[in-house]
Design brief:
This protein is an alpha+beta fold and about 110 residues long. Helix content is about 45%, strand content about 20%.
Length: about 110
Amino acid sequence: KIVDKFITEIDSQLHEKKASVLITPAARTWIAEKGFEPKYGGRSIHRFIQANVKDAVADELLFGSLKNGGTVTVDVEDDSLRLRFDAPRRSKKSKKPTRRPRSEKAPV
């Protein structure tokens, strides 16, 4: 539940930037196991998410693929946290300029 709370917090902040975060069940469990320290409780998970998720997302928002919004997917691969940044898809608009009808010459 603590992991979900912090991820939801990040997601609401990203919403303002037209971005969102998705976390897989495996990543949720992995963060809870790796980030939890009984001595510090939820604070250690918060610090862990800050260092491993939020900082990387901030860099992508400012300089990377999330400048114009998109989705962050948090997953686990080879016992490591993996973030995938997907920029929004562009619409399939034609790049050709729109032709305007020729205006008739005004009588002199």
